[in-house]
Amino acid sequence: MEVVICSDEQQVGQVAANRVLRWVEGLTTPVLGLATGSSPLALYNELARRVEEGEIDFSCGIGFALDEYVGIDPENPLSYRQTILRTVVEPLRMDPTRVRVPNGSASDLAAAALEYDRAIAAAGGVDVQVLGIGSNGHIGFNEPTSSFASRTRVKTLTEQTRADNARFFGEGERVPTHCVTQGLGTIMEARHVVMVVTGRHKARAVTAMIEGPVAAVCPASILQFHPSVLVVVDEAAATGLNHADYFRHVVDILI
Ligand code: F6R
Fold it and tell me: Is Hydrolase given among the entry's keywords (predicted)?
């Protein structure tokens, strides 16, 4: 696992974008795995800037979102479908017909989830998976104790996750209790993973993921087994790392 500690969110976005561009270089139809939430916005903004400047073109790219709420209409602005369209597809000038989000409104959620994994495989698998991390160590919505072998499926959200995500919902609007999320096994099949994390409230989860034992209580720790992971954090998210000096030293040599 490669870890880069950045001074601020803007640098986080730049470092992560540099790596994404390196990983998709030469691919005619790059397949991106897309996270929603606050963390990857710096990366998406930086990628959008580079699209604007003509450095990269994602119009032939394919996208698969990580997750969607159950019971929220895909047309609802709070749905992850709409969030992905607003924060990724439009700014990166991707073709919306080539970007999929799990269907949280399907009458047969299990069948739709199975079909989602098949669609990822049919696209040749994910080239670069973008991830954030929950304050409880989740990736996607694979909450603590999720199976490391899990595939896309329905999960119950923890109260912690619902509280963390309440900020996206208005007063009187209930945060859904369930979601459809790519499984840990699904995520681990991506060829490359870039995780973006900012803020002190994520420090404990970041430390558990990078320096803790590989354990289902911190689902993100499974990434220790992935051969190509870059974790880009700001100083606040790095405050719990015992090996922070080592990670800075590694970067110094690379520069
Ligand atoms: C979102 C997702 C989640 C978030 C995580 C962090 O699609 O899969 O794992 O990445 O909850 O969310 P933020 O970045 O909003 O703190």
Answer: yes
Which pLDDT value is given to residue 250? Answer: 86
Mean confidence (pLDDT) of the chain: 96
User: Which of 67, 81, 99, 138 for a ligand 1 pocket mutation test, highest count of atoms within 8 Å of Cβ?
Assistant: 138
Alpha-carbon Rg for the chain, nearest whole angstrom, is: 17
Task: Return d(Cα 247, Cα 242) in angstroms, integer.
Answer: 10
Mutate to test the pocket of ligand 1, among 39, 67, 69, 201 (most ligand atoms within 8 A of CB): 39
Which of the following is catalytic: 103, 136, 142, 165? 136
pLDDT of residue 251: 78
Q: How far is the CA of 165 from the centre of ligand 1 (A)?
A: 9
Percent helix, strand and coil across the chain, each to the nearest 5: 40, 20, 45
Q: What is the CATH number of domain 2-124+137-196+231-249?
A: 3.40.50.1360
pLDDT in the model for residue 254: 63
Task: Kindly give the parts of the chain with pLDDT less than 70.
Answer: 254-255
Distance CA 158, CA 122 (A): 32
Helices (H) and strands (E) in the chain, counts: 8, 10
Active-site residue 136, yes or no?
yes
Ligand 1 center from residue 253 Cα (angstroms): 31
Q: How far is the C-alpha of 248 from the C-alpha of 73, rounded, in Å?
A: 44
pLDDT of 171: 83
